[in-house]
Design a protein that fits this description.
This protein is of the alpha+beta class. The chain has helices at 46-54, 96-106, 111-125, 140-153, 170-187, 198-204, 222-227, 232-237; strands at 4-13, 20-30, 35-39, 61-66, 69-70, 81-84, 158-162, 190-195, 207-212, 215-220, 244-251, 256-259, 262-264, 273-279, 284-286, 292-301, 306-312, 315-321, 332-337, 343-346. The strands form four sheets. A six-stranded mixed sheet has the order 6-7-8-3-9-10, sandwiched between helices. A five-stranded antiparallel sheet has the order 13-12-11-14-20. A five-stranded antiparallel sheet has the order 15-19-16-17-18, with no helix packed on it.
């Protein structure tokens, strides 16, 4: 396994007035054995960055280092990278065993050694019983396992995943997420994984890079990204439901936050002026005697939790409640805040206040 260093990477498409900058000086260090997630909406530049790492695109500026070696001008075949795609990209006329072992055959690995490696990978992926089948005889989840097996068989320096679970149904996605995490723990190979799904990002990554419009918004652990978002974009993108953002004014040397319809006794790092208060749904609770009041508009039972949407003078707020919470649309409720779990943002820039 190898470290990966992304330094000052820019990428533009087009010329003159039609030139579009899709990556704007990206800097990321990936440690050996780390699982990095690139997450963001469609068009944010995450797949372009992955293609530059793979050698399928050339950066306009910047360098890509694997270990100490700059591979920007190295052909993809010489980078010792394995890539798993959304589309599986299996050879339809080959058996599962031949698909897994094809890259090894190209590298002239002896047949006995190649077969041993195929069997080892098949056991790791729990597809030993599928080795004689063709791709057309497999389910979507089985095909994705074969695609991962083909990548694993090579023992590359770096794994690249390009939204590999997008074609699977919800239940299978959960199963394959766990499988990918298990395989990474077994192999220890440095991995970069592209997704637009923030649940995948939170569950899989040792660190997450949140991107928007070609700009790296925040790089950190799942806990840092979730609990200490760098700006309102990250706060709104990561988390389901997303973080509640409440506009108000800080008064009394940062000890009182005045919002429409209520005043909250919360310590804000900003001495005075306008700010945004960020509250995760689980850090709000319904409390009959609370001074902050609202009316329930929607109740969403999910089994493990119930999400209650409350209309207040300061806007709509989502509250995460116990599964059997006895409220219904139209009920008047009070809201209390877990003060140790709040986030504060500058109203104009959207940046986190520290």
């Amino acid at each position: 396994m190898s470290s990966l260093t992304i330094r000052g990477v820019r990428k533009t498409f087009g010329q003159g007035d039609k030139q579009v900058e899709v990556l704007k000086r990206i800097d990321i260090d990936v440690a050996p054995g780390e699982f990095l997630i690139l997450v963001g909406p469609s068009g944010c530049g995450k797949s372009t960055l992955l293609n530059i790492i793979a050698g399928l695109e050339q950066p306009t500026e910047g360098s890509i280092l694997m270990g100490e070696r700059d591979v920007v001008n190295t052909p993809p075949a010489q980078r010792d990278i394995a890539m798993v795609f959304q589309s599986y990209a299996l050879y339809p006329t080959m058996s599962v065993a031949d698909n897994i072992g094809f890259a090894l055959e190209i590298r002239k690995m002896p047949k006995a050694e190649r077969q041993a490696r195929i069997n080892e990978v098949a056991a790791m992926l729990q597809i030993e019983h599928l080795l004689d089948r063709r791709p057309a005889q497999l389910s979507g989840g089985q095909r994705q396992r074969v695609a991962m097996g083909r990548a694993l068989a090579r023992k590359p320096q770096l794994f690249l995943f390009d939204e590999p679970l997008s074609n699977l149904d919800a239940k299978l996605r959960v199963e394959m997420r766990a499988e990918i995490k298990r395989l990474h723990l077994l192999s220890g190979i440095t991995s970069v994984y592209v997704t637009h799904d923030q649940v995948e990002a939170m569950t899989l990554g040792s660190r997450i890079a949140v991107m928007k419009d070609g700009v790296l918004q925040q790089l950190g652990t799942p806990d840092e990204i979730y609990n200490q978002p760098a700006n309102t974009y990250v706060a709104g993108f990561i988390g389901s439901p997303t973080m509640n953002l409440v506009a108000g004014r800080v008064a009394q040397a940062g000890a009182l936050f005045e919002i429409a319809g209520a005043s909250l006794d919360l310590a804000c790092p900003q001495a005075a002026g306008e700010a945004l208060l960020g509250l995760r749904p689980e850090h709000l609770r319904l409390q009959d005697d609370a001074g902050w009041r609202g009316v329930v508009s929607v109740v969403e039972p999910t089994g493990a939790d119930t999400y209650v949407v409350v209309e207040t003078a300061a806007g709509k707020l989502t509250v995460r409640c116990a599964p059997k919470t006895q409220v219904k649309p139209g009920d008047k409720v009070g809201l209390a805040v877990h003060s140790s779990h709040v986030s504060w943002f500058d109203k104009l820039s959207g940046l986190r206040l520290s």
